[in-house]
Structure formats: C-alpha cells, structure tokens
Design a protein that fits this description.
The complex is a heterodimer. By secondary structure, chain A is an all-alpha fold. Chain A is built from 9 helices and no strands. In chain A, helix 1 packs antiparallel against helix 2 and helix 2 crosses helix 3. The longest helix of chain B is centred in the C-terminal third of the chain and has 28 residues. Classes of the chains: A mainly alpha, B mainly alpha. The interface between A and B is large, with 45 and 36 residues.
Chain lengths: 180, 60
C-alpha cells in the first residue's frame, strides 16, 4: 500500500485522462463527471487493493469502465445521446471546440458501438497497448484488435476522408509529411 | 521512403483526429468538485488515522 498522499497525488495526475475517457465513453459531459466522481470514490475506498508501482491509470480506467457498464445495465437504456450532447456542449464550451473538424469527429465517434469506441480510444488516444486495453475491457487481445480495426474503417466511411486534405489546412494535418 | 497509400493516409488522418479530440478533452478544466472531494476524503482519512493512533495509545 502507498501513503494516502502519494495515492492522492497520482490519482490527481490521472484525473484529466480519466475524464477524457469518460467523455469519450459516455458522449456526455454531465454523465462523464458523474462517472469520474463514482470512480474516484470507489478508487479511494479500495486504495489498499492498488499495488504501488503498477499502472494506476489502467486501474482507474477499469473501475470507470465497470461503473459505466453497470449503470447502463441498471438503467437498461442506450447511453449515447450524441445529437443532444453536441448542442449542449457547444453552448457550454465554445472555446474548447475551435474547429469544425473536431466536432465532426466527435459526432462520428459517438455513432460507433460502445465496444468499438472504447477500444479505439484506449489504444489510439489513451496510450494503452492492445494487451493493456484487453485487460481493461476483460477480453482477448485479438478481440480488441478487431474492434479497433472495425472502428477505424467505420470512422473512415462516416467521415468520408479522402486522404487528400479534406480537413483543410490545419496545424496538425499540414505538419504530417505526405498528407498536406 | 515509400509513398503512403491512400488508405494509409486516411488512417493516419483518423489517428490524428482521434488524438486531437482526446487531447482537447484532457485539457478541459477539471471540475473543482473532484479536487475538493479528494481533499475531503484525505482529511477524513487522516482524522480517522489520528483517532485510531490515539485510541491505540490510550489502550496501552
């Protein structure tokens, strides 16, 4: 067990990423904040079961994910509400979404089935390996791989990216050699 | 270096978009209530530890 100070410190450093995962998973900031709150409470309550030196981020993501699917089972409803989310978020966070392409991307991401969305987010954005993602999602590595690949092709279709600079010149795409 | 295929270009764009989207989420301000909640939890625990120590000492 680690002292509560270092546990707290490490938890704090992971909050931003945990919340980003929660938003990607639920597609809704209010829900995401509830999920993060539940996760922090649960993590705190069982901090003795966390082994110091192991991956706290993965541990927290697992708790959050279980919470998310637990709530989903309980309520028996579809969790994503992408259209509504878009209007809400645009009204609340105009400064966070400077570019239309990011909004389009969020919309497309939200249309993916949950299992594919979490797989592509964990591997493609949160920085987990396929192995770590498979542990977080409690499934085989091959399953994660196929979900990521299905997510990628669906996104490609939905966004109708031509690979010829459809997104217009922005600092990210224009800095990649061979794309802009 | 080989010229990337159209498919590779598309996939690399998707990857870039995904990362950009995620980073924009990570950079959003953490609601104060989480920080406050952690402070509360920490305080409560320290209090409990102190109380336990005190009762352990009293018991000797």
């Amino acid at each position: 067990m680690m002292g509560s100070n270092s546990f707290k410190k490490e938890l704090l450093t992971n909050l931003g990423s945990l919340r980003a995962f929660a938003v990607s998973l639920s597609g809704n900031r209010d829900r995401a904040d509830d999920l993060v709150q539940e996760t922090v409470m649960k993590a705190w309550a069982k901090q003795d079961s966390f082994t110091m030196g192991t991956n706290m981020k993965a541990w927290l993501f697992t708790i959050l994910r279980n919470e998310f699917y637990g709530q989903m089972r309980k309520s028996g409803r579809e969790v994503s509400d992408p259209d509504n989310v878009m209007t809400n978020n645009l009204a609340q966070h105009p400064d966070q979404y400077g570019k239309l392409d990011l909004q389009d991307f969020q919309k497309a991401l939200n249309t993916l089935p949950e299992d594919q969305r979490e797989a592509i987010v964990l591997v493609g954005a949160s920085g987990f390996s396929y192995e770590e993602a498979s542990e977080i999602c409690e499934c085989a590595v091959g399953t994660i791989k196929s979900r990521v690949s299905r997510a990628r092709s669906t996104l490609q279709e939905r966004l109708d990216v031509s690979g010829e600079g459809d997104y217009g010149p922005d600092e990210t795409s224009s800095s990649i050699p061979g794309i802009a | 270096m080989k010229t990337p295929t159209r498919y590779q270009k598309q996939q690399s764009m998707i990857n870039q978009q995904l990362k950009k989207y995620y980073v924009s989420l990570e950079e959003e301000t953490i609601p104060d209530r989480f920080i406050e909640m952690l402070e509360q939890l920490d305080k409560a625990e320290k209090k409990a530890t102190q109380a336990k120590r005190k009762s352990d000492n009293d018991g000797k």
